[in-house]
Every structure is written in C-alpha cells, then in structure tokens.
C-alpha cells in the first residue's frame, strides 16, 4: 500500500454552511492538524480507509450486491470449488479483518478459503465444511478427527457469541476459540499451532450458504435479499455469499455481503461483472414490477437502535425523461455532463422527510502512481440552493455539485482533506468524535447517504455509525420489468420509520420530479409529440 499524499489546503466554505460551537471546535482542531501537517506530521493511512475501519464495523454497515441468473450446472460442493477458483484470481477480494477495540483493520489475506455453512431458520449455525485453498500451505498434521473437532468448536463459539454487539462479537469469538484450542491436549506443540492456524483461516475465509429455489420462483422471490443479519459471518472475513440454486434452469443467483472496511462498492461491482463474463448468464429474472412491495427485514442493531433494510422497485422514466429535456435546455450552462446523482439529490431534498438535510455521496476516486483507488465524500445541502425561481436554484445546485465532484476526484475536496488530517488520530478518538461531536460530524459530513452503481441489479447500501438519517443505494435504472415496461431497484437502510418514510418519498419524488426542475411532465411531452 502506497503512502497517502499530503492533504490539500482545507477550504472551510465548501462543507460548512451552518455554524455552532461544536462545529467551530472541530474546525479549530482541523486547523491545528493542518499546521502540524505542514511541519511534516502526517498520517500513514489513507483518510477514507481509516474512517471506514472505525465507522463501518457492524452488520448494517456491510453492503450487499447481487448477480442474478448466472449459468451453472454445479451442485453445492462443485459450486464452492468454482467460486474458490474465481476468488483466487481477484486481488480486491483478498482481504481479512483484524479486530481491535475501536477498529476493524484490513489485512491482506493470502488464501482463498471458503466454508460451506448450514444455518437453521432461526439463524443458528449447524455445520461448517471448510474448503481450504490448495495453493496455500495446509495444516498437514491435522487428521480428519482433529478438523472435525475444530469445526465443532467454531460452531459452538459462534452460537455462544452471535447475539453480542457486532463491534465486540468477532474478537470475543476469537478469544473463546483460541482458549478452547489451547486448553485441549495435543500430541505436539506443532499440532497445536496448526490447529490455531486452521481456525484462523476458517474465521477469515469466505462463508457460503446454498439454498435451492423451485423452478417457478417469482421475480420478487429472487430479488428479495437473503437474511444476512440472521446468518452472520464468523467475523474476520471480507465476504459472506448466499447462493440460490435453480437446478432445473441451470442457474444460480449470488448475493454478496461485503465488509466495507477493506473495500468499496465500485471495485466489488466490477468483480461481479467479471464473474458474469466468466460464467455467463442463464434464466436472468426480470425486475419486479414497480407496483411490487417487498417487506422490510432486520439488518442490524446498534446501541439499542433497530436497523432495517428494504428494496423498492420504481419506474424511473420521469427522472430519465427530465434529464434528457434538461440536457437540451442547459446546453452551455454547465461545465460537466448532467449527473443523475445530482438530480436524485435535488429531487429527494424536496421531500418533507429530507427537508434541510445534508447529504453525503461516495465518489469513486481512481488510483494514481502515488495513491491507491479510494472513495471521496461529496457533501452538500441542496436546500441552500433553493430559490423562488426553481430553475435558477437548480443551476446553482448543479454547479456546486459539479465543483465538489471534481474536487473529490482530484483529491482536493474539503472532506478529503479533513479525513486525511484527522487520520493521525488513534481509533478511539474517532469513537469519541462520533459520540461527543455528533453535531459537528453532521455538519461536515452529512447525515443521510446516497450512492449509485449504474450496473448493479440490487444494491443494499452500507449504514455506518455516522449516518443517523439512513442510506439509499441506486442500481440500474432501466431493467426489463415483469409484466412489461422498465424499472430499477433502490436499497434503503435506516430505522423502521425512516425506511417506510423514504419508500414513499421516492415514489412522491418521481411523481412530481418535473415540477422540481421546471420541465414539462412526461404526459405533456407525449401530448406535444402527438400534436
């Protein structure tokens, strides 16, 4: 990993538009850190990654991507082996987690190990069948009886810890497991060490769950996210994969739950696209109709606060048609192409449940010769740009959005600089900041997230500790829908009340979008063409 570049000068006006005592205090701290940075005191870790390792440690903070209708004729064991061969060739998937008191640090993972896991309906882990990567040194001294005993200990320690807080569970599980292994009498010290190494490999490997779907499974059933919260990863690995086999169709739907500490959404979506290119497509389901409504399901609990997720299917044609109309009407008035993400933010900001909210949007930042690929954070409060003349307000917002997008991609945004300056702090200060300076964090980094992966079939967003107002993830906008027409999926995470409120807000936004941007409604445009 390369040394992160020095932070750009901190431009306060870019991300502070509401002042308070906590905001002023945090700003003074950043200015002090900026002065120390000029004297050569800098963080060795990249700012976004350091933040991700501290604020994205819960089940709800993991994100989910789906690849539906992949061609396969494989049974469960063969599918496990085939996935292992694919993962072995994906460097972005070769990470594990080292759990500390206030951080889940990413560490390179040399093996592509997979364990086939069996859970019951209540989420109890019943069995683990590890498939260790043959290209990594294996614990040869362990016979089948020893491995069976170790797998049983893994199951028992998982069961003993699965109801603990997410930020404590993996380290507690590892300590309990290590103690059981060390207390057992082994023929030799070498065998004890190999037993510990075996358990660590299983802990940090991929967990695979396989179920079979009937050939008449509906589009809604195939698009409904698996209950990852009831079937948790053991805790030290990057991936939990849920496979739904459709044997009669020669197809499988793969759902990947991904820990956000080591990797980000865009690189992982590229991995799924490579998987489809490698395996091919078979029996790809249409998107459920926009009239469909899948029930919300639990996705986490943090400090007594219930967190839920839902997938909403929407007809985005009002948004897409408005963008085409605006592209023609705004020729020469913007420096960059009109962004769908910007229009989504503008439309959402007009909904009562998002009134006055400050949004944060991840930005994929390409690698440079000096720095690895990372995420920027575009933070903006659209309501600041509201005007009596809505078109004038929209132009003001779009120009501000485009400048902040450029600044993030060039690693010179205020949020990028702030994260890089604060990256000198130990992880416990991140937790203190979240608890004691929540108002300052909300002003600097927003409270509600929105993210977009244009190729994703279903995308459930990460809900971090710094997103008290939830997160929305948009995937492909125009997939073939069941019953005709086009539709797309939106993944939503938040409290139960937030999720239900946001589902309705999305539908209201699309129904009235032409009003927010002052273009003719789709029905009026259609009437014009007929005349």
Question: Which key terms come to mind for this protein?
Answer:
531 residues, 8-stranded mixed beta sheet, 17 strands
Q: Any low-confidence stretches, pLDDT <50, length ≥5?
A: 526-531
Class from helix and strand fractions? alpha+beta
Number of helices in the DSSP assignment: 17
Radius of gyration from CA coordinates: 24 Å
The count of DSSP E runs of length 2 or more, i.e. the number of strands, is 17
Helix content: 25-40%
Which oligomeric form is depicted? single chain
Biggest β-sheet, characterized? 8 strands, mixed
How far is the first residue's CA from the last residue's CA?
62 Å
- Shape from CA axes? globular
**Averaging pLDDT over every residue, what do you get?**
91
Kindly estimate the percentage of residues that lie in beta strands according to DSSP. Answer: 15-25%
